[in-house]
Amino acid sequence: MEKRWNVINADSEKLSALKESLKIHPILCELLVQRGIDTFEAAKKFFRPEINHLHDPWLMKDMRKAVNRIKDAFTQQQKILVFGDYDVDGTTSVATLYQFLHKLTPLVDYYIPHRYKEGYGVSKIGIDFAKENGFDLIISVDCGIKSTDLITYAKQLGMDFIICDHHLPDAILPPAIAILNPKQIDCEYPFKELCGCGVVLKLITAIAQELELPAESYLQYLDLVATAIAADIVPIVDENRTLAYFGLQKVNDNPCAGLKALMELAKQTIPMRITNLVFAVAPRINAAGRMDDAKKAVQLFIEKEYDQALAIGALLQQDNLDRREADTYITEEALAQIEQDPHHISKRSSVVFQPHWHKGVVGIVASRLIEKHYKPTIVLTQSGEVITGSARSVIGFNLYEALHACREHLLGYGGHFAAAGMTMALEQLEAFKLAFEKAVAERITEAQLTPEIVINAELPIDQINMQFYTIIAQMEPFGPDNMRPIFIAKNVYDTGYSKIVKEAHISFNVTQGKSNIRGIGYNMPEHIKIVKSGKPFDLVFQLQLNEWQGNQSVQMQIIDIKASA
Questions:
Q1: What is the largest distance, in Å, between two alpha-carbon atoms of the chain?
Q2: I need a labelling partner for 343 at 20 to 30 A (CA). Which of 192, 293, 386, 514 fits?
Q3: Are 23 and 471 in contact (CB under 8 A)?
Q4: What DSSP state is assigned to residue 522?
């Protein structure tokens, strides 16, 4: 698939000022200014994170109310239920808060709703469970901000609610005792992009300060916070960057038994990075809720004995194998369905349906289809008497707006700019397909239908060395708003030693001027013609460390290739 290359620039005045104060390579200054780091102090804070960079938890609206209500529960011997979502952010949030509170009171338990029996977020079944079992206070984590009716119901039953959430609030808020959510309009907390587990960390920090507990009482959960930050794809800037930085240190030095077990099962080696958490650890946690019951994930995180954690982790491992199997065969069937449609090439969207597809993986499959056919995509399956499904968007296209335009065909829908879910009656399927195609076609641009690679800077080959790479490595942890830098090298030539290895990858050996460099391009054998043409070509790449027989060198990891203009 042809991709657009977009080389971005930094503000020239800020760039000049930063070069003057930092005295480092101008391209590194460019990378920093692109990330909003344009002073010596900001750069120092970026490269040298400290725990005291974390914001004061008491700045969060309702923190005093929340802490006071929890203290009242302690003194009055009231039962507390921690209620969380079934994904990584939800299960790590529950495990963090449950463990912290359990050291202060034995009267605490946790509840994870079943994805298919109860749906997302606070559920009536969960509230009824709390009432039947004598709970006085429910603390929802990573959910609750949109559960006005259900929290009203809990209040009528005589139970109080504290909400810890990070999703965007509606105009009408639930009648909770306290709402901890930095995205509230009147919340003065300085950082708005915490994940759910990040909000929980602020709560337990405040409780610890109130009860004069040592910092270790809450910092010991930073490995779970880092896992949630990675999995929830929140911006790794400001406080999230500090939490991820120290959380990864804990993951690498002294992870909880559950994370250690998952790392072992996923065959991960130290040092772990954000990408390891995203691609190896998070899918195993999410698989529990997708395929079965996410309570296993919480049990894993609160387990202290490594052998027991390994046994629970093996159950998640099996869930993940089942998920991958379902994901593979559904993706194959969905691609076949698209390719059998003679009109698909001219369409602006992809909508596929089979009644037998597993609804736990339809969102993953939608993302896979976009890798092959770059269009807003919906994957639908049957659930009881209705059709249900997940939608994924392409960069820059507002999916939620397009779904809203089709609402007359839907029983329900929800989500945001890039991802959404919906349900509809069986007889509405064909009408919905037509309406969604029309809504997308009216709103999408040609540019949005071509994937874009955002390139940070042109980097000549003779500028690439270990010192330059070392400073790039200090910009970790990478993630949204602080992505691993992408470079372009123009007018390079094959030295004659580039070749295809293992029938799928290109081992590069290229030259520019008097400098040579090695590189690897995964799954791009079709580009070998450009490399071997004898003509100049341009490379888009990232830098990586290559280790061979005890020697380290910097090489390119190729992302895309085009013949030079």
A1: 80
A2: 386
A3: no
A4: T
What are the tens digits of pLDDT across the range 370-383? 999 999 999 999 98
Dist CA 113 CA 120 (whole Å): 7
> Cβ distance 504 to 523 under 8 Å?
yes
Phi, psi of 340, deg, nearest 5? -85, -10
Radius of gyration of the chain (CA): 25
Instruction: Say yes or no: domain 453-565 is CATH 3.40.50.2300.
Output: no
Domain formed by 57-252, architecture = Alpha-Beta Complex (3.90)
Contact (CB, 8 A) for 517 and 493: no
- Nearest by Cα to 183 from 174, 194, 172, 173: 194
Helix (H) / strand (E) element for 521: namely strand 515-521
pLDDT in the model for residue 482 = 95
The two tokens of residue 365 are 């499959």
Question: Residue 120 — pLDDT band, cuts 50, 70, 90?
Answer: confident
Structurally, at CATH architecture level, domain 341-449 sits in Roll (3.10)
For the segment 49-56, the average pLDDT, to the nearest whole number, is 96
Q: How far is CA 254 from CA 248, 306, 311, 418, in A?
A: 10, 12, 20, 35
pLDDT in tens, 489-531: 999 999 988 899 888 899 999 999 899 999 999 998 889 999 9
